[in-house]
C-alpha cells in the first residue's frame, strides 16, 4: 500500500524522485522520505506527513540532493506509528545499506530476535528495518555480493514485499525484488536507464517501456548496463518482457478540477462508453462480444455455480452482479469477501466459476483468494482495470474495464465500469443458456447503448446537491436504504460518505429498516432512499411513510416524472429513468456527488482520506 520510486541513470535523480512521490501519494501519505546517492555516499531525508512536508524539510535543511541514483517512498503505516523514525528509507546498522519496502514481513519478530542476539540494534518499530539488517547480516556472514545477500535473505522471510535496496559503496547498482506487492520497472534510453515505481504513473513523462516484475523475481540494475533479471529461489536468469504503456498523460492530471475524485466522477459517461466499446457491437441488434467469454463459452454455458470474490467497492459491484447473473442466467451465485474467503474452507468444485474483481488487480486478499480457487481446480475469471496487474496475469481468463487510471482513493468510475462489465457478462451468459427473455435482452442492450447520455444528464444535479449538502454536513449519522439491485448501491453510497467525510453512515435493505435501524430515526437523522420506479416501488413508499412517521429527514432519489414521492420527501433528487437491471449506473451518481460535496464543505482532503490507501496490497 506504500508507494515506491527509484531512479538510476545519467539525470539528476532528485527532481524525478520528488515528482514521482507526488504522483504516488495516493498510495500512502502518512510519511515520506528520499535518499540520493553519489560517489561520496548519500543524502537522506524523511519526515512524517505529506510529500510537501518533505520538500520543505529538504529546503530548510539545505540538503544538497545531487546524484544520478536514488530511492523514495510514501508510507501507509503497518508496523509502527507514522513518524520521522518509522518513515522510509531505512538504513542498516553499519549505514552501508539503504532500503525502501512495500508489504509486510510476517516473521520479522523472529528474525529481529536473532539479529538482537548478534549485536544488532533498532531505531524504528518497522519490519523494514529488520529486513535491511538481515540482508547486512547475511552479506557479512557469507562474505557475498549484495544481490546474493538479498536473494538468500528473501528466501528466509515470510510475507509480501516489493523492495529497492542500494549499497552505499556502490551507488550505481540497485536491487529490486517482488513477492505479492506490485513493482514496475521503466526502461529508458538504450535500455540502460531505469525507473522504479509501485505503478508506472510516476515515470510516464520519461518512458512508456515497462517491465512488470513477477512474484519471485529480482532485478539487478546497473548504470549504463542492461537489466539482469533472476529468480529469487534458484538464481536462474530470466528473459525480461518489455511492454508498451498505453496511458495518456492527461488521464493522470486533474485539469481544471479541484480533486481527482470529482474529475473521475465526471469521467463516468466516457469510462462507461469505453467499457462498452468493442463489446456492445450493435445495441439495436443485440450483439455483444467479450473475448474472454467467447473463448470459454462451454464453461460459462454449463456452469453449476459462480462465486464472486472482491473487497470494498468491488464487493458492492459484485452484489449487483449477483442480482444480474441469477436473474438473467439462472446460475446460483455467491458473493464473498476475499478477506474472509481465504480463512475458511470454502466449497469449490472443478466445474465452478470463480470471478475475482479488483480495480488495481493487486488487492492482496483477492489475490490470495484467486490462488486458493485455482488450487481447488476452479475456472477463475478476472475483472480488473490495470493492464498487466497480478490478477490479470494469474487468472485463467478475464476482461479489462478500460476505466483508465483512478487516482482518487475513493473509487467511483471503477465501480460503474465494473457494473457495466457485469451487465454484459450476465446478458452474454443468459443468451448462451437461453435463460433470458428475448425482449428483455434486446431492451437491455438498447438501454446500455443509451446509458452514457443518461449518466451525463444525471451529473447536472451537482449544483442542487451542494444545497442539500450544506443542510446535512454537520450531522453525525446517515442511513442509506435501497431494495433489490439498488440495495448494494445504498451500501456503496454509505461507504463513500464514510470514506471521505468521516460521517458514520450505514446502508441497509429498506425492508430491514424495521428490524433494528428504525430505532435510530428521529428529526436529526437524514435518510437517503433510492426510490426510482421498479417492482418494489409501492414497498418503498411504505418505507418512506414509516420514516416520516418518526420525523426522519428524507432525501429521495426518484425518476423525473414521479410526483407521489416528491410530495413525501424533504429533498428529491431527480434522475432519468432506465431499466431496473442497469439503474445502479445512474443511481450511484448522486450518492457519489453527495459524499463529495459534504466532504468538501467539511474541509476534508477528498483524494487522500485519512487511514486509507488506494491499493490494499497487504492482508
Topology of this protein?
Layout: E1 3-8, H1 13-24, E2 31-38, E3 41-48, H2 51-60, E4 69-75, E5 90-91, E6 97-105, H3 108-117, H4 127-142, H5 146-154, E7 159-167, E8 170-179, E9 184-187, E10 194-197, E11 209-212, E12 217-222, E13 228-231, E14 237-238, E15 243-244, H6 260-266, H7 268-276, E16 280-282, E17 287-288, H8 291-294, H9 297-301, E18 306-310, H10 312-329, E19 333-337, H11 338-341, E20 353-358, H12 364-375, E21 379-384, H13 390-394, E22 397-400, H14 413-433, H15 438-458, H16 462-472, E23 477-482, H17 487-501, E24 504-509, E25 526-530, H18 537-549, E26 553-559, E27 571-575, H19 584-601
Parallel strand pairs: 18-19, 18-20, 20-21, 21-22, 23-24, 23-25, 25-26, 26-27
Antiparallel strand pairs: 1-4, 1-10, 2-3, 2-4, 5-6, 6-7, 7-8, 8-12, 9-10, 9-11, 11-15, 12-13, 13-14, 16-17
Tell me, rounded to a whole number, the average pLDDT. Answer: 90
Radius of gyration: 26 Å
Based on secondary structure, the structural category is: alpha/beta
CATH topology of the largest domain: Glutamine Phosphoribosylpyrophosphate, subunit 1, domain 1
**CATH architecture designation of the largest domain:** 4-Layer Sandwich
The proportion of strand residues reads 15-25%
User: How is the largest sheet built, in terms of strand order?
Assistant: 3-2-4-1-10-9-11-15
User: CATH first level of the largest domain: which class?
Assistant: Alpha Beta
Provide the CATH superfamily of the largest domain: Aminohydrolase, N-terminal nucleophile (Ntn) domain
Binned, the helix content reads 25-40%
How many helical stretches? Answer: 19
- Cα-to-Cα separation, first versus last residue: 10 Å
Shape: globular
Number of strands: 27
Amino acid at each position: 500500500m506504500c508507494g515506491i520510486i527509484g531512479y538510476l541513470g545519467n539525470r539528476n535523480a532528485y527532481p524525478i524522485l520528488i515528482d514521482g512521490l507526488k504522483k504516488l501519494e495516493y498510495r500512502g501519505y502518512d510519511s515520506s522520505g528520499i535518499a540520493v546517492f553519489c560517489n561520496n555516499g548519500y543524502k537522506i531525508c524523511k519526515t512524517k506527513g505529506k510529500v510537501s512536508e518533505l520538500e520543505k524539510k529538504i529546503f530548510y535543511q539545505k540538503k544538497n540532493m545531487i546524484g544520478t541514483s536514488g530511492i523514495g517512498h510514501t508510507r501507509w503505516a503497518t508496523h509502527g506509528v507514522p513518524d520521522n523514525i518509522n518513515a522510509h528509507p531505512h538504513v542498516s546498522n553499519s549505514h552501508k545499506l539503504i532500503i525502501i519496502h512495500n508489504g509486510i514481513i510476517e516473521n520479522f519478530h523472529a528474525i529481529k530476535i536473532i539479529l538482537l542476539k548478534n549485536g544488532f540494534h533498532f531505531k524504528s518499530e518497522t519490519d523494514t528495518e529488520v529486513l535491511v539488517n538481515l540482508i547486512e547480516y547475511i552479506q557479512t556472514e557469507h562474505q557475498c555480493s549484495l544481490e546474493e545477500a538479498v536473494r538468500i535473505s528473501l528466501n528466509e522471510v515470510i510475507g509480501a514485499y516489493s523492495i529497492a535496496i542500494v549499497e552505499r559503496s556502490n551507488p550505481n547498482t540497485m536491487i529490486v525484488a517482488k513477492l505479492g506487492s506490485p513493482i514496475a520497472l521503466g526502461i529508458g534510453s538504450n535500455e540502460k536507464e531505469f525507473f522504479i515505481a509501485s505503478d508506472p504513473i510516476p515515470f510516464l513523462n520519461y518512458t512508456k517501456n515497462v517491465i512488470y516484475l513477477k512474484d519471485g523475481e529480482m532485478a539487478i540494475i546497473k548504470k549504463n548496463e542492461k537489466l539482469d533479471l533472476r529468480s529469487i529461489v534458484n538464481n536462474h536468469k530470466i528473459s525480461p518482457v518489455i511492454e508498451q504503456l498505453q496511458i495518456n498523460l492527461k488521464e493522470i492530471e486533474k485539469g481544471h478540477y479541484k480533486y481527482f475524485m470529482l474529475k473521475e466522477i465526471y469521467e463516468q459517461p466516457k469510462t462507461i462508453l469505453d467499457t462498452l466499446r468493442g463489446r456492445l457491437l450493435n445495441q439495436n441488434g443485440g450483439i455483444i462480444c467479450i473475448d474472454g467469454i467467447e473463448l470459454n463459452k462451454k464453461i460459462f454455458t454449463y456452469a453449476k455455480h459462480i462465486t464472486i470474490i472482491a473487497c470494498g467497492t468491488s464487493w458492492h459491484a459484485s452484489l449487483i452482479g449477483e442480482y444480474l447473473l441469477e436473474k438473467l442466467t439462472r446460475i446460483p451465485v455467491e458473493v464473498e469477501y476475499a478477506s474472509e474467503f481465504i480463512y475458511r474452507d470454502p466449497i469449490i468444485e472443478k466445474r465452478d466459476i470463480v470471478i475475482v474483481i479488483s480495480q488495481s488487480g493487486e488487492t492482496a486478499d483477492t489475490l490470495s483468494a484467486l490462488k486458493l480457487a485455482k488450487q481447488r481446480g476452479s475456472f477463475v475469471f478476472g475483472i480488473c482495470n490495470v493492464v498487466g496487474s497480478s490478477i490479470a496475469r494469474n487468472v485463467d481468463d478475464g476482461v479489462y474495464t478500460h476505466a483508465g487510471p483512478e487516482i482518487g482513493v475513493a473509487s467511483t468510475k471503477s465501480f460503474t465500469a465494473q457494473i457495466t462489465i457485469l451487465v454484459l457478462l450476465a446478458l452474454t451468459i443468459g443468451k448462451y443458456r437461453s435463460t433470458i427473455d428475448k425482449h428483455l435482452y434486446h431492451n437491455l442492450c438498447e438501454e446500455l447503448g443509451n446509458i452514457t447520455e443518461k449518466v451525463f444528464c444525471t451529473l447536472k444535479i451537482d449544483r442542487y446537491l451542494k444545497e442539500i449538502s450544506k443542510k446535512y454536513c454537520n450531522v453525525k449519522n446517515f442511513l442509506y436504504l435501497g431494495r433489490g439491485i439498488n440495495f448494494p448501491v445504498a451500501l456503496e453510497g454509505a461507504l463513500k460518505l464514510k470514506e471521505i467525510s468521516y460521517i458514520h453512515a450505514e446502508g441497509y435493505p429498506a425492508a430491514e429498516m424495521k428490524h433494528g435501524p428504525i430505532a435510530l430515526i428521529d428529526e436529526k437523522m437524514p435518510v437517503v432512499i433510492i426510490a426510482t420506479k421498479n417492482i418494489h416501488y409501492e414497498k418503498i413508499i411504505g418505507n418512506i411513510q414509516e420514516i416520516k412517521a418518526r420525523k426522519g429527514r428524507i432525501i429521495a432519489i426518484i425518476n423525473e416524472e414521479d410526483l407521489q414521492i416528491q410530495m413525501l420527501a424533504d429533498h428529491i433528487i431527480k434522475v432519468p429513468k432506465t431499466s431496473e437491471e442497469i439503474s445502479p449506473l445512474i443511481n450511484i451518481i448522486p450518492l457519489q456527488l453527495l459524499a463529495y460535496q459534504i466532504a468538501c464543505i467539511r474541509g476534508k482532503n477528498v483524494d487522500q482520506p485519512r487511514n486509507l490507501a488506494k491499493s490494499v496490497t497487504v492482508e
